[in-house]
Design goal:
The protein is of the alpha/beta class and 291 residues long. Helix content is 55%, strand content 12%.
């Protein structure tokens, strides 16, 4: 069978590498991106063209992929003037690889279904380097028949592809995952800051803690910055702040509170307000040192 034509919107670090992987695997692409240099890099590799609007992109493609920053951006691409919803073909599928509000995802899915199109929410784990090699973790959800239809394509992008059930479950799972990760980074970064303020050697603290059950890759990322000054977790404080906000909205939507997340979100928002949002999450150590 011939490969589906793929529309891809969002050529940041993750999306750009995902597109390169798809091109290396012989897919034809129609793309949109804000940065001219990212668009040019895709076009230079060949078998790709640029669309002027999301509607034009959707009209030309069998699968539409989004790798953008927020639910508001997703909704703008879907519902805006010349948006995806106005151009998507019957039988086509929209895949949202970003981290979005589950209620928004379900609404978009229902509106697409009314036009005979499907949707999969498929947020990602791992790094842009994994994206280039097709080794991502993909948390996919949606109608099972739609998932089965796009599964071979997801397998070309992910080493581990998880099917999680009804539409929205992927985004719920990703928000829980990011709640755990970002809360852990906040706690560990503050632990190193308290140690420094109390006169305890941070490297020795790491040596002690890393021999016990607190040890984790996240502890390593936090130690790399707080002890060695190396910022190597490629996820910004602004993105973490956004995701914790979405997680708190999820908790509210299901009738509960997440008080631990509220504390981490307070710290992340304070760091953003202190103009630290572009830094990687372990750099929140600097905020805790200044408290």
């Amino acid at each position: 069978m011939s490969k589906p034509i793929i529309g891809f919107i969002g050529l940041g670090l993750m999306g750009g590498n995902m597109v390169e992987n798809l091109q290396n695997r012989g897919y034809e692409l129609v793309i949109m991106g804000r940065k001219k240099e990212a668009v040019a890099a895709v076009l230079d590799r060949g078998n790709a063209r640029e669309a002027a609007t999301p509607k034009e992109l959707a009209e030309a493609c069998d699968i539409v992929m989004l790798c953008v920053t927020t639910s508001d951006v997703v909704e703008g691409l879907v519902y805006g003037d010349d948006g995806i919803l106005s151009g998507i073909k019957r039988g086509a599928v929209l895949i949202d690889y970003g981290t979005s509000v589950p209620a928004s995802t379900r609404k978009i899915g229902a509106d697409l279904a009314a036009k005979g199109a499907g949707m999969i929410d498929a947020p990602l784990g791992r790094t842009p380097a994994h994206a280039k090699d097709g080794l991502l973790n993909i948390m996919a959800a949606g109608d099972k028949a739609v998932f089965d239809k796009v599964k071979p394509l997801l397998d070309d992008q992910g080493e581990n592809v998880f099917y999680l059930g009804a539409l929205g479950a992927g985004h719920v799972t990703k928000l829980i995952n990011n709640f755990m990760g970002m809360t852990t980074v906040c706690a560990m970064s503050q632990a190193f800051a308290i140690a420094a303020r109390a006169g305890v050697d941070r490297a020795q603290l790491f040596d002690i803690m890393s021999t016990g059950p607190s040890n984790s890759p996240f502890m390593g990322f936090c130690k790399n910055y707080a002890v060695d000054g190396v910022s190597d977790l490629g996820f910004s404080i602004s993105n973490a702040n956004k995701d914790l906000g979405y997680f708190l909205k999820l908790a509210e939507d299901i009738g509960t509170r997440a008080e631990i997340a509220e504390g981490a979100a307070h710290n992340l928002q304070a760091a953003v307000d202190a103009d630290m949002g572009e830094g990687n999450v372990p750099e929140i150590f600097d905020y805790f040192m200044k408290l």
